[in-house]
């Protein structure tokens, strides 16, 4: 049969002729109907040799659906010809995590050395695919497997998010889906299907009019130390780390001091003042601009082009005095936490990988950390309470 295989790291995959696998006891052979191509496939192909614990070659494709072709010995409850989706992450099936259907968190992941079909083991970009255990099959009934394959990944991710929020989605509440792309459009449909929410709000590129006090010019030494409202004072700073092999990683954090929301964690090998400006421009378009922006005297922050642009945007720059990091207490404690909970415990394979991990930590920080200074709310909850939902546009 034909199979699209990864044969060398950082090499294009190849269409090869390989034998049709034979299912052993407990295994199931699927005739592939659809196999989704995902951005993760590009990442997998991109990693340098030695970064992933997978042995080559293997067939790509981790979003799969098809029809049962052959049942291995001992498999019951299924018929040849049944339409099925294949659950993506393959754990051991026996540890506590696997038994809660959380195979992505399998306790024996290191021992297994592969994350699933298309991720270290042969996946679905082939005519047939071997599924190691019938527990990984999801019955499709009348659905056509050819259209269903992406549900096993692109829809499963938002489904997981929607499902964990379901208890909060009582009648009269709203769900906000930001970014209606490959996963987000699934989130909108899932919310409609499984929750009783009355309205779905959507960001359409409109920025909210924010209430701001009348603008007053202030000189540096009268800039208030404590932020009085959202978008009053933002603080931004760099923190350094390294990716695998010791290559430098520079991380830019941007925080709203009043709500404690982490607005951005951007990273790269080198972030110049032009890159900092790019990050700020995106944040201004999305959240509005702060009245004051606080930083230390790093060369990227005091660059004339950046400070001039900030002034033109109406954001006053305030540089803390050299040797007095205490003037940026919140930024300091945020970085300590970022270091403890993320940088010190994650091994980054690449800048791209660091970006994904930092973004998920940033989200977690804003949506899960309770702050005593915010009355034991999370930054996101506290920020939401400051806003006027009427300014959003109905989907
Ligand atoms: Zn995927
Ligand atoms: Zn397991």
Written description of the protein model:
The structure is a single chain. The chain is elongated and about 75 Å long. α5 crosses α6 (184-194). The protein has helices spanning 39-46, 96-99, 109-112, 145-148, 156-165, 184-194, 273-287, 299-302, 304-313, 329-343, 351-368, 379-386; strands spanning 2-6, 14-17, 28-36, 58-59, 63-71, 83-86, 116-117, 120-121, 128-131, 137-139, 174-177, 199-202, 233-242, 248-256, 262-268, 292-295, 316-319, 393-394. The chain contains twelve helices and 18 strands. The strands form five sheets. It has a five-stranded antiparallel sheet. It has a five-stranded mixed sheet with strand order 15-14-13-16-17, sandwiched between helices. It starts with a strand and ends with a strand. The protein is an alpha+beta fold. The longest helix has 18 residues, at 351-368. It binds zinc ion (ZN) (2 copies). One zinc ion binds next to loops. One zinc ion binds at residues 91-92, 94-95, 97-98, 106-108.
